[in-house]
């Protein structure tokens, strides 16, 4: 296959994955984030990068949003939400974050391939995304892409869908959001 053909396969896989998203999950997460205080986002590796993009859009939509681990990230409190993007749901650092957030009374959202995982079980809200796990030694036929690429792509699309739903519920516009776009570039 050439690059264009690979790209088309990726688009087809993503289309199939996105078609499995639950409307109720997007609605529930949008409502939770809208009524929350601060929103904290975390993930490891590429899932963490998708979370960083989500935190940026949350900030542009007017939410106090933070990426866990940054030097300017404040403490989490009872009215806040921790959103964890994790394919496996077993990343130890994320498990510790979920436990700490819950001990302080914050809500925990797991966006994951594996709701039965440790983080999925700890979470107050669990969103199951389709995709393939990082370890595909069993010969996954879901995707031709390496490791958890399909999950990570679906994660970003899901996060963007949540932002769009929040925008719709609050009357937010792209033009107003652009006013919060970085301007020291």
UniProtKB/TrEMBL annotation:
Keyword match Translocase: no
Any single biological process term in GO: carbohydrate derivative metabolic process
Domain SIS: 29-172
Pfam families: SIS (PF01380)
Top-rank taxon: Bacteria
Keyword line: Isomerase
Protein name (database record): 6-phospho-3-hexuloisomerase
InterPro entries in alphabetical order: PHI/rmpB, SIS_dom, SIS_dom_sf
Record-linked SUPFAM superfamilies: SIS domain
CDD domains (UniProt xref): SIS_PHI
Family to which this protein belongs: Belongs to the SIS family. PHI subfamily.
Gene Ontology MF annotations: carbohydrate derivative binding; isomerase activity
């Amino acid at each position: 296959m050439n690059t264009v053909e690979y790209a088309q396969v990726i688009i087809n896989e993503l289309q199939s994955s996105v078609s499995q998203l639950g409307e109720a999950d997007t609605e529930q997460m949008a409502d939770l984030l809208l009524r929350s205080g601060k929103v904290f986002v975390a993930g490891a590796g590429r899932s963490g990068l998708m979370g960083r993009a989500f935190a940026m859009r949350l900030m542009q939509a007017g939410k106090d949003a933070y990426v866990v681990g940054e030097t300017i990230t404040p403490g989490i409190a009872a009215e806040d939400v921790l959103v964890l993007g994790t394919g496996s749901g077993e990343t130890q650092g994320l498990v510790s974050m979920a436990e700490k957030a819950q001990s302080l009374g914050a809500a925990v959202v797991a966006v994951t391939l594996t709701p039965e995982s440790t983080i999925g079980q700890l979470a107050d809200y669990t969103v199951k995304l389709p995709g393939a796990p990082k370890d595909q030694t069993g010969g996954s036929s879901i995707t031709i892409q390496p490791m958890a690429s399909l999950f990570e792509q679906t994660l970003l699309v899901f996060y963007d869908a949540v932002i769009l739903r929040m925008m719709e519920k609050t009357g937010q516009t792209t033009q107003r959001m652009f006013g919060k776009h970085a301007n020291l570039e």
